[in-house]
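User: Please run a holo structure prediction.
Assistant: Happy to. Please share the sequence and the ligand.
User: Here you go; the ligand is pyridoxal-5'-phosphate.
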Amino acid sequence: MECLSSERKPGTVSLIERDRARLWHPYAPACADLPLWEVEAADGVRLSLRADDGTRHHVVDAMSSWWSAIHGYRHPVLDAAAKRQLDRYSHVMFGGLTHAPAVELAERLVEMAPSAPGSPRLERVFLADSGSVSVEVALKLAVQFQMASGKPSRQRFLSIRGGYHGDTFAAMGVCDPVDGMHAAFPGLLADNVFAPRPPTAASATPEAVQAWATELHDLAAEHSEVLAAVIVEPLLQGAGGMHAYPAECLTTLRKVADQHGLLLIFDEIATGFGRTGELFAADHAAVVPDIMCVGKALTGGYLTLAAMICTADVAAVVSVGSAGALLHGPTFMGNPLACAVANASLGIIDDGSWRAGVARIGAGLASGLAPALALDAVRAVRTIGAVGVIELRGAVDVAAVTAAAIRHGVWLRPFRNLVYTMPPYISTASEIDQITTGMTAAVSEVHEITAARRGEAA
Ligand SMILES: *Cc1c(COP(=O)(O)O)cnc(C)c1O
């Protein structure tokens, strides 16, 4: 394990070599020379990258830093909000203390949250420090709710295959049981119940949607005595495979939850704040869940912050239950700096210009990615809101596609068989064109067997 024992003096080797000697990266082994670029600057939609050999690339960030930097980097309003709060204080504990940034944020989230006539509103906010933690809190709240309602046997969850809800243990337990991390932690992940993934939005027939609804209903009926809640990513499954499904499935989920006494949890960590074309994915179907999680874009990608929002009824039942409290309280709960930036980001969302931005980006992605469908290596191309996906027939060569995209001035992070983009909402038409051209060229250069080469092989 040479990479773990290397003693190198800082300064004598490059930053990337020092990184490789000491750091972990997401879902990565410690001892591998995985490609890495140093970010020297970030401004607007662009990242300035430096490779290990010293070459520099000024690229459009097609990932919005994992879907969070929706307003771009160094946004003057967000920068100013962070600096203002920094001049007051950065952090204080949230036990027994409160502050204006947290109160304002809770009020804003309640104001924005999905609502529908006749549905109880989402009006009680728990601030968490990451998306995964907000999912943990949502699941915990659901179990406590059932316990306080006299149903202590209801401690498991119903979900749909192909989902992703985070990397902590309870969250992993509701991720896809095959493509998630269940195999790595047998015995540690809860024995949850999984319905099939709903049919693909673009090609769903009424019969397929009905068949899915029947299966969901049957599973809920069969296991209702042990189920606390149903949890899904509404409308678009993100890290589980960028799978969009029909909005009417959300109505079905609400009905099934109500019929069988389950709480309905929408994980809007990826879909929230406009990404799918409505403020929240739930708004496409005017369905209000009992519990909602938000994260990722909440601070415009500046700081880690997430929130769990529930109805007054759920909050009240848990609060008068035997535990007498929601049993969670992170050290950095309600971090004022993060809340201040979140308020600034939601202020930008409030002005409504995201809607035109997302629509413009969606149209640009649809027309720009259409030519990719002509490639032999490509199985499908799809867009929803400001999300564009090229699905390959086989696994992506991540390193090669990433490097090729950088040569075309675009930062991508493909996974599995998916080369996708979730650009910042401020991206111009020409930046979207650069992204779609770069994605298509990278796929073509790395994965396309040209007619000439096919001829040689024959
Ligand atoms: C990213 C994501 C999470 C986890 O959020 P973290 O901040 O990475 O912990 C949970 N659910 C969904 C839908 C996500 O996209």
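The pocket of pyridoxal-5'-phosphate is lined by residues 130-132, 135, 164-166, 233, 238-239, 267, 269-270, 295-296 (CB under 6 Å).
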